[in-house]
Amino acid sequence: MSEQNYDVVIVGAGVSGALIAKQLGQAGKKVLILEAGRDGQGSYEDYLERFYMAQAKVPESPYTPPIVDADRDGFQSPSNPSNQAAGRPSTLTLSQQTWQDRNRSYLDQQGPLAFASTYERVGGGTMRHWLGTSLRFVPNDFRLKSEYGVAEDWPIDYNDLEPWYGKAEAAIGIAADVADQDYLGITFPDDYQYPMPAIPSSLVDQTVSAGVEKMPPVDGVQLTVTNTPAGRNSIPYQNRRVCAGNTNCIPICPIQAKYDPTVTLYEALQYPTVSIMYQTVASEVVVDANGQVSAIKYLQYDDPNGGVTGSGSVSATRYVLAAHAIETPRLLLMSTNGGRTPKGVANSSGQVGEHLMDHPIYLSWALAPTQLFGYRGPLSTAGIEDLRDGSFRSERAAFRIEIGNEGWNFPIGDPATTTLDYIVGANVSQTNAGSGSFFGDSLTSRLNFVLTRQFRLGFLVEQTPDDDCRVTLSPEWKDSLGLPRPRIEYNFSDYTKLGFVAAKQTATAIYNAMGAKEYTRQPTAADVGSDPTVFAITVDADGNPVPDGQAPPAGSTTDYFRFYGAGHTVGTYRMGTSPADSVVNPEQRSWDHPNLFLVGSGVFPTVATGNPTLTLAALALWAAETILRDLG
Amino acid sequence: MSTVLTQATTSELDDFVNLSAILTGIAVSMLKPLLDTHGTAQTYLDIAKQKGGATFAQLMAVYDANRTQPPANIGTIILEQSGDTVAYMAKSIMLLWYLACWYDPQELAAYRADPTKGARFTVVSSDAYTQGWVWRVGQTHPMGYSTLSFGYWHQPPQPLSAFIGGGNSK
Amino acid sequence: MKRAIGFAATVALSVAACQTNDQQGGLKSSALAPINPIVTTCDTTSPPVPPNLVTPEMANSGLPCTLTFTASKVDLTTLQEAFDFNSWLTFMALSQPVDASNSTDLQTVWQGWSDLFAVMREDGAPPLPFGAVQPPPATCTGAPGAPVMRMISKTPTTPTLSVSGEPLNTGPLIDQNGHYVRYQILINEPMYNYIVRNELYSKAGQQKFTDSIAFPEGRLDTLTTGAVGAIVVKAAWKVMAGSDDPSRFQTTTAYVYTPAEPGVPESCHRSTLGLVGIHIVHKTAGEPQWIWSTFEHVDNAPTLAQASNVTASRKFNFFNPACSTSKCPYNRQPPQPWNPSVDPFPGEFRSQIVRATSYPTEATGSAALWNRQFHAAVKGTVWENYELITTQWPTEATNPTDPEGAPFPLFAANTTMETYVQGNTPLASSTCMSCHNNATTTTGKRSDFTFVLEKAH
User: Fold this and answer.
1) Which is more confidently placed, C339 or A518?
2) pLDDT over 90 for what percent of chain C?
3) How far, in Å, are A74, B39, B51 from residue B122 at the CA level?
4) Is the Cα torsion angle C280, C286, C287, C288 positive or negative in sign?
5) Local structure of residue B76 (DSSP, 8 states)
6) Chain C residues in contact with A122 (beta carbon < 8 A)
7) Long-range contacts (CB closer than 8 Å, 24 or more residues apart) made by C259-265
8) Residue A37 domain-assigned?
9) What average pLDDT is seen over chain B?
10) Interface partners of B (3+ CB pairs, < 8 Å)?
11) CA–CA dist A229, C218 (Å, integer)
């Protein structure tokens, strides 16, 4: 394949790449998108069929390459990423047995804890299986250091980003009412209206709300239930249908009422100057003697389980890497330019791949005292946002609370687990004391009783940017193209762990206020070290963390927590005010290479307290404007 | 709507559906509607015969020998008084209806002994998944398959009887 | 025993009695004509019982107001046959010729109905009178009174406005001559009346309307007296060109219009088009989820099973037997960008379409039965070149937990209109009622199984 000169080459057809491609195409710029994964067009039936037949209906389950293989009896088990040309992580490989198995885990996980979030490599990207939650960050999210002396400040603030939030909300199509959303300092222009009216609350929301209204303040804060802005249609929008409550946003909305980036991608591809190459894996960013990026090299494959079938390079006036927060640093680190850039490209700061963060989730679950009819509506329609900011942030991580509408599906894989309990005679759900088995009316009444009272609260804890969390290249694990797979080191700071302690207390307080019976199962000491998604924290009588290895003083308590990934991978090429400690400037332009932009959640200096999608979409639109100004 | 099919000569399918109703607690007329657009009953009978073989035949023989008993008795006889082989075969059939998944009876027996090992299963089909009865027992729909309209989740659902019928295991 | 099908019949009629006068066809004021006027010509012809066959008189016996049949037994086969027979009667009745008032063409009854664009106008203005043809854009000349074909996917979006056109990213259909297939949506007079009377033709009007949306129903009162109710037609048209034989098609003269795109001016040319697909959707008292009939031109495409065995000389509208599956993969959207002004489609791409939805034997057997008989009855007319694919109907119209009414068959697709969503995957594959069950007005209110209302400005 010969070089062709483009105005812009974009690596990655996810939400950032698609939004930028559309803006550039609209302006008549010549754009080429390189996408590692398959073309998603025309595959919806394929994805949905794969989902319906999946034995583990995890977020990745509909997409390609398939995360499981089936044996001859049809039983599915994790597929082998060593045999995949564009593989990616899976939540099926986070157990003790699999997380460090090179034939199971795509990521070369070095620990001590497992990085528990995943992403996709397919047209449309990871946002194909987002929930739809579209929160703006609160102003203090951008000022964690100057307000609370913790972590970093962003080099931009809420007011800088505010106009872009509005544009992102129009581009995606967000359903919300402004009157619900101006808390904790969030502001809107005077006449601002979200594109669509808010999604109605669920009965679960209403029940939780009635309970928290009776609670005394937590950490000085009165808790309230707030409707969640969502990229989900409440009226017809972008020629897509309104939500029908399929309760399946993750992993796939069967009717595309939930926005996904293929919508924008296909709009972008309608501009005659925008084109895309699928199954095209960027393998090196080429830098010339002047420190400018001069080309992107790529490898191509025909068979998703096969090797290289083609290669080439493309050049452009501007380059955009939009491959998400693990694959983008992987690409930069792989780009050694024959030894001229041994630390990789754009990495004079040494920060490429550093400060990997997620929102680790503390998951709790309970039975309500009355029926609240879960498993209905979108997966989540409301949350408790009041604890996203406050003076406690100087001591421990903040969190937002996501109210789940899907019963105990997330915590224990229900309704299947409880059904097995009552039919086979077991008590995995903890609701079947005595492990009896039932049939007929006594089965239906028991199952109905439990299923209609189940609900869960997920606490998305703000992980700090830490020095022991990073993406590098695996020295030995490769994909089927021969490229090194990402290596991950991951852990939590005490600040983050103290957020879990507070989350646990808050959950219990909420359940008590509701008169709900809590069923959250906490891990034990035995699980630490034998389950890479379990950690411990010991605090002394004053609530201060006791360092590892130190003998706990009298009055100390130890908590054991299981965490889950929220799918919010951020931080690995952060923006900042100085090239000494950041990878991109506030324009998301590489400090080292002025014709290179890095976009997506990797630019976040902190993970903040809201789901990242809306913020990264806003930043992408902002970057598009900057690029257009560059191109003149 | 229809009640339990009690013809003089019942077909193999009728027997299967009658027994399934007793075990699952779902009305016969819902397991196999008059106009059966999904044909789920026949699908599950075929699977039970193919995967269950002699064990399934044994189960149906127990049913046949006790068919005139009250439904509650039939259930007890099959699930508690005819040995594990028959009982777990019956449970596999219940799980077909509830979860649209095939769990081999031996997987279920092993699961009862040690649930920490999990139980392997396969999903029957995407169509069957949309007809799983566990969701209706929860007064809802399968995750990933809703026939309701925007905003329905703001209000309570129809009563349980609308979903599963009056039940006939008294 | 004749009966209106659908256990819902008595329930629906009593519900109808509770609705407003507007619904019933009664008068809100003496000056207003009824929305759903009484007619005395409801066709109540029953399906012929073997050895009787469909006769030409039967085939042209007129428009059923609702489904009536003689019930020998209630099972899927018998009812499917009743619905499919009803579909053919409806198709033939709507295909009767009428003089077009302002063109030299003879046209069919349904072609005289109101086009969607004449009802949902760009500024939310009141619709043109029923049946009035919208004046074409200024660039269109040479065929006064001709309809304007501007839709390139089955939903009316301009090419760059949300090009996905359709949920799940479907796309345009390119025939063997490289021309884009064009689509029309037309509504009958009771449906038109309901929209106009309730001001549902604009976003503002829809916001003001506080009732639930309930289009008028076809029903039979006594003998042949009743009301027709709402009917929507969606038609797919193919430009007659190359080796196409217009005598094998119902044809029309129309403007083929494409609005301007960045860098591409608007274009309009007069063309003769042939009908390749038609949906007829009829709301009746017994089927509040409507009855969904779909017909295709017999030369459109082979089935998936037939596709590898087709003789090379057989001519299809949307399939090339001589092209290998590697060069012409089945049912793939054209490569983007989709630019209807660039005509023919650049490069070699032509849509290679196969019929990929599987139907149950009750449906395939019934469709084959009536296609055979009606084709014999209308032999020598152009109608023998159109075949019924299937009719989707609710088996439990009043099911309290399933507003879709348990449709049968589960899936249905027209290769010209649901080209890229043919299959048997729940929700993702084409199924009339499930998709239309999600239809709403511009305010998100249920719109009674039609997407027409969401197109208001």
Assistant:
1) A518
2) 72
3) 6, 19, 12
4) positive
5) H
6) none
7) C259/C150, C259/C158, C259/C159, C261/C159, C261/C160, C261/C339, C261/C341, C262/A26, C262/A28, C262/A271, C262/C160, C263/A28, C263/A272, C264/C339, C264/C341, C264/C342, C265/C341
8) yes
9) 93
10) A, C
11) 42
Give me the residues of chain B with pLDDT under 50, please.
1-8, 167-170
Q: Determine contact, residues A200/A378, Cβ cutoff 8 Å.
A: no
> How many other CB atoms sit within 10 Å of the CB of residue A496?
25
Instruction: From chain C, pick out residues whose CB is under 8 angstroms from the CB of A272.
Output: 263, 337, 339
Residue A267: alpha-carbon gap to chain centroid? 24
Residue contact B126–C406, C-beta within 8 A: no
Which residue from A594, A614, A596 is spatially nearest to A604, judged by alpha carbons?
A614
Dist CA C446 CA A226 (whole Å) = 26
Residue type, A500: F
Which tokens hold the place of C348? 């070699």
Closest residue of chain B to C395, computed from CA coordinates = B35
Residue contact C402–B149, C-beta within 8 A: no
Cβ contacts of B120 on chain A, cutoff 8 Å: 73, 75
Would you give the end-to-end CA distance of chain A in angstroms?
29
Closest alpha carbon to C84 in C365, C403, C425, C456: C365
Interface contact B91, partner C, CB < 8 A:
no
Residue C12 has pLDDT above 50, yes or no: no
Statement: residue C9 has pLDDT above 80: no
pLDDT tier at C149 (50, 70, 90 boundaries)?
confident
Residue A190 C-alpha from the chain's centroid: 31
The pair of structure tokens assigned to B99 is 């979860």
- Domain ranges, residue A312: 1-65+92-194+251-357+569-632
A30-A36-A42-A45 Cα dihedral, nearest 10 degrees: -150
Residue type, C60: N
Mean pLDDT, to the nearest integer, of C160-178? 63
Give domain status of residue A418, yes or no.
no
Predicted local confidence at residue C330, as pLDDT: 95
Residue of B nearest to A53 (CA): B123
Paired tokens of A529: 């070290």
**Overall average pLDDT of the C436-450 stretch:** 96
**Most trustworthy range by pLDDT among B15-24, C31-40, C413-422:** B15-24
Q: Which residue of C has its CA nearest to B164?
A: C401
Residue type (1 letter), A409: N
Q: Which residue ranges in chain A fall short of pLDDT 70?
A: 1-3, 42
Q: What number is the average pLDDT over the span C44-64? A: 95
B152 near A CB under 8 A: yes
The CATH number of whichever domain residue A37 belongs to comes to: 3.50.50.60
Residue C297 and residue C245: Cα distance in Å, rounded?
A: 13
A283 vs A286: CA distance, rounded Å: 10
* Per-residue confidence (pLDDT) for residue C55, from 0 to 100: 97
In this complex, which of A73, A437, A451 lies closest to B79 when CB atoms are compared?
A: A437
Is the residue at A376 inside a domain?
no
Helices (H), A100-248: 144-148, 158-172, 178-181, 203-212
What pLDDT does residue C106 have?
72
Residues on chain C touching A240 (C-beta within 8 angstroms): 164, 167
Predicted local confidence at residue C162, as pLDDT? 31
Among C76, C401, C446, whose Cβ lies nearest the Cβ of B163? C401
Q: What is the pLDDT of residue C101?
A: 59
Displacement of CA A472 from its chain's centroid (Å): 20
Please give the Cα distance from A287 to A217 (Å, whole number).
Answer: 56
**Which tokens go with A191?**
């006449």
In the predicted structure, residue C7 carries a pLDDT above the cut 50: no
Query: Which residue has tokens 């400090």?
Result: A591
Whether A125 is in a domain gets the answer: yes
CB A387 within 8 A of CB A398: yes
Q: Does A404 touch chain B (CB under 8 A)?
A: no
Residue A609's nearest CA partner among A14, A189, A139 is A139
Work out how many domains chain A is built from and give that number.
1
Q: Tell me phi and psi for residue A569, to 5 degrees.
A: -85, 120
